[in-house]
Request: fold
Amino acid sequence: MQLLPQFLTAFALPGFLARSPLVPAELEGQRTAATTCTGLQSLLGSDIVQSSGSLYTQTATGAWNLFNTEQRPSCIVFPANSQDVQHAMKAIFRDEVRYAVQAGGHTAMKGWNNVQGGVLISFSRMTNITFNAQKDTITIQPGVHWGDAVSQMEPFGVAPAGGRVTDVGTGLLLGGGLSYLAAEHGFSSDSLKEADVVLVNGELLTATPTNHSDLFHALKGGANRLGIYPNSSAEAVVKATADYVRTVNDPKTAILVGLIYTLFEGQISTSHFVTMFYRGTELPAHIFGDFLNIPSTVSFLSQQSYLEVSSILGAGDTRGFGEVFGASVLSSSPSPALSEEDNVEQYMNAFRQWTNFTTTFRDSLNGTVLAFTPVLDTQIAASRAMGGNVIDPPQGGYAAVQFQVQYPLGMLSVPPEVEEGRLAMLKGVPPTPGFPLYIAESDASQEVFATYGQFEFLKETYAKYDPTRFNVRFTDGPLGL
Reply:
């Protein structure tokens, strides 16, 4: 199956967002945005361009991350088609106002899907999904959540290679995308056949492998079985994960490992889990034996459909909490390759750093997660066979490491010492040189693009399609361009 997203996103290269400085006169910028909004409302109508009302408020305050619910845009554009997006971007570009784009609304990076006093483009009305059986392609509009995509395609016997949490949106593709099918079919973005893109100046392009091929390639990169493990077995889970990444190379397998600390009144409770996925009739002991031999408090082992697999971790749509991510990457295959003992030690170091941070700042946290997603050699090979992407990791296999910090309900201001401790935790787990960070699970301050195998190509392509660097200057996003 190939995945054909119809991305009518409102920025030059949707994967090429960069943190932008504040405009010199922020108040004047907000007045300009208000003028832009008035013009757009006259052109597109008050149903599409809204500056108040229940839908405006629901959208401005409805992001998954509490830190992205504080901002109040001058207006929100709810496009129904690509022409609406073009009109919005032409006005934003002409008036040089700050803007943001919201598809699934599921980013942990503050400011990436909301904007104070600027123009927010929300794709909540562009949620169509169609399947072409003859071409074996799916057309997905940018407002779709992966849970909807999987459930609507299940009657056709089709499994889109999307996210592992159902509330995640199509923005996952722009960061490469990790799915349960990745070891066999590559990154989620490798399944792209065509993408409609609105540039910063409002021009609509259709990018394919043969039409605007540089843009198409740059777009691609610019989550069975469940066991919940007691804390006493955490080190065994970490060691089994390290050995899995180092030794397994079966394209039909996937795992996601999550170590969880939940805090209440300074007390820490644990609920670690491992999802084990195999596209077959049973879990091979030579692949999953180390995990299956660890005593578990709860275990679900059964054959399941892809729809059931995609829903097993839940929707991930709980609102009201401030969320921050951070990333590292661990591989046993730098030059020279690590010994088995040293390979396990780098995973244990990540576990210790995470535990130390959580313990130190327990009174200021609601919960923390340390997660490992293996990227096997088979995934890298499958990616390259399908045309590849700008992430372009080297052969050798690695684990994408995610640190997630959740603050107490309603907390909008993080104590400086807690933020310093979180950044120290990230620094204490240095990424393996030469291997890429996963942008969807990174911190806003991390130079993710610089870890990509095709970073220079990415910079050149961005400069071609956004020569004035409008996107970098007027919307928040990843650093490095």
